[in-house]
Structure formats: structure tokens, C-alpha cells
Amino acid sequence: MKEVNIESLHLNPMTLISDEWMLLTAGTKEGFNSMTCSWGHLGSIWGKYSAVCYVRPQRYTKEFLDREELYTISFYSSEHKNDMAYIGSHSGRDTDKLSGIALTPAFGEGYTYYQEAKLVLVCRKLYRAPILAEAILDRDIPENYYPEKDYHDMYIGEIVKVLVADDAKFV
Question: pTM of whole model > 0.85?
Fold first, then answer.
């Protein structure tokens, strides 16, 4: 992987996040966890390039995300879709996720990602806030997405480093 300037990226965040999915990983070599996400945003806020992700309160990854300053959002080629599905359907609280996937952890200073990623965004937490039921204007959303009333927390992170696989077509 090579580090690139964020402004050199050429990508479609709509399909990258919702169709291809992303892995949110928080923690360090001493302990980390990942979860699959298909909700998120890439953009800018407060004069910083940013990534937004959403995490339900019961997700094990949230414990790591709340504890650490940095986290990563990473994207993979279609050959790793099964790995991402496995990570999204198994809890690291109960399972050694690494034993069920073909991804290799890699560690930076204060963050974790996987060597097989085609794109890694290293983010520094800027903001966390709960999604509030009373603030949802479309009344179908709570019924369709929150029957258990387990509203997500939203995390906004400043993208502080971008890593791209040597063969990736993002730059």
C-alpha cells in the first residue's frame, strides 16, 4: 500500500459504500475489532475531509471505537465480499473473526486495517452523537430500521491518511 493525497482520489462514494460495503475497524495490535457497514458518507465538514459511519450500541466494535482516537474505513475488491459478509454476521465478542476470513491485519500507529484492502481511510474522531428518534422526520424509518429502538451513534472522523493498494484504480 502507498500513501496518497486525498485530493488525488477518483471514486464514487455512493456505490463504494452502499454496494461494495466497507469495513470499520477500531483498535490496535493489542486488540481490535471490525464490522461491515453499508451506511456512511464521505465529504467535508469544519474545513476537514471527513468520513461518517453509524454504529448500533450493541456492536462490539463500538467499544473499540469509543476507546480509541483513530479508526479505519477500508474497501475491498469483490473477491472479499464473503469475508465482509462473515465479519458483518459474526460478533468478535463471541467469535475469532480472523479464523473465518481470508484477510490479514496490518497495523499503523494507533490503528488497524487489512493488507488486502484496495483503499484505507485512516480517521481521527471529531464527533459522536446518537440518532434521535424524535429528530427523524420520515416516520417510516423508525418502524423499518429500528424496531428494537437501538438507534445508531453517528461518528464523524477527519480523514488523516489515505492508503491505496498498488494496483488500485483510485488515483
Answer: yes
